[in-house]
Design brief:
This protein is α/β, with parallel strands linked by helices and 257 residues long. It is 40% helix and 15% strand. β7, α9 and β8 form a beta-alpha-beta unit. α1 packs parallel to α10, α5 packs across α7 and α7 packs parallel to α8. The chain starts with 6 loop residues before the first strand and ends with a helix. It binds 2-phosphoglycolic acid. 2-phosphoglycolic acid binds next to β8.
Length: 257
């Protein structure tokens, strides 16, 4: 994923049955052969194989929303990174706040999952973000810095790991931080990554913003020079709203006169 390109990633969460593959088809058609921005859709596991087949030969990447930290074993109900890869996934999200909160996942677990994903040859989106209370207490940067350090494995690089900054209070709430606050956080996170991994300036580490991104606010979010794309939940379920966000990213990618 080393690329100056914006990445627009959809996270369907626990939504989608086979009839909804028509939305994937519509996104594929809408994207066409265009590679102006990178586009990925992270699906519930049972749709991955069919969606990967549908997207084959198109620039659309199909991914999963979570994986186990072991490659196989006695873990009833879990799914491993090699299984996802076998089904056609090429990327996986780890550390989403709904996993951290709803399933008690610590950053240590998230890091082990990211390591498993890398072993399986999947690219990874590592999610981090502060709660409303943490932001109000002035702790947003320190909380995110800690999650970042603890969740991103030492083997990671800008080629295979993308960070998604998703303030917990912005997810599904209709609220977003100001573009300035997003820019400040992304700059802070990028500097931390570049220091730790000794990454050169040319190898920009991609940092997405996530939380209530819609066709209405996408252009303003993408106009920030620190934003490398978006992780989109609700607005990715419908092909036309997702395509509108992709169009905003393409527009923002055009060289400025
Ligand atoms: P949302 O979700 O766009 O519905 O706020 C984003 C996410 O949780 O990744």
């Amino acid at each position: 994923m080393i690329s100056a390109k914006l990445l627009v990633a959809g996270n369907w969460k626990m939504h989608g049955v086979r009839a909804d593959l028509s939305q994937i088809e519509a996104v594929k058609t809408g994207v066409g052969r265009s590679t102006a921005v990178d586009v990925a859709i992270f699906l519930p596991a049972q749709l991955i194989e069919s969606a990967a087949r549908l997207a084959d030969g198109s620039p659309l990447t199909i991914g999963a929303q979570d994986c186990h930290f072991k490659d196989s074993g006695a873990f009833t109900g879990d799914i491993s990174a090699p299984m996802l890869r076998d089904a056609g996934a090429r990327a996986v999200i780890v550390g989403h706040s709904e996993r951290r909160t709803g399933h008690g996942e610590t950053s240590k677990t998230v890091r082990a999952k990211a390591e498993a994903a890398l072993r399986a040859g999947l690219r990874v989106i590592v999610c981090i973000g502060e709660t409303k209370g943490e932001r109000a207490a002035g702790l947003a940067e320190s909380v995110c810095a800690r999650q970042l350090t603890e969740s991103v494995p030492d083997e990671g690089s800008p080629a295979d790991i993308v960070i998604a900054y998703e303030p917990v209070w912005a997810i599904g709430s209709g609220m977003t931080p100001s573009p300035e606050d997003i820019g400040l956080m992304h700059k802070f996170l990028r500097e931390s990554l570049h220091r730790r991994f000794k990454v050169s300036q040319e190898q920009r580490w991609r940092i997405l913003y996530g939380g209530s991104v819609t066709p209405a606010n996408a252009s303003s979010i993408f106009s920030g020079s620190e934003v490398d794309g978006a992780l989109v939940g609700g607005a990715s379920l419908n092909a036309s709203s997702f395509l509108a966000i992709i169009a905003a990213a393409s527009e923002a990618s055009k060289p400025k006169p």
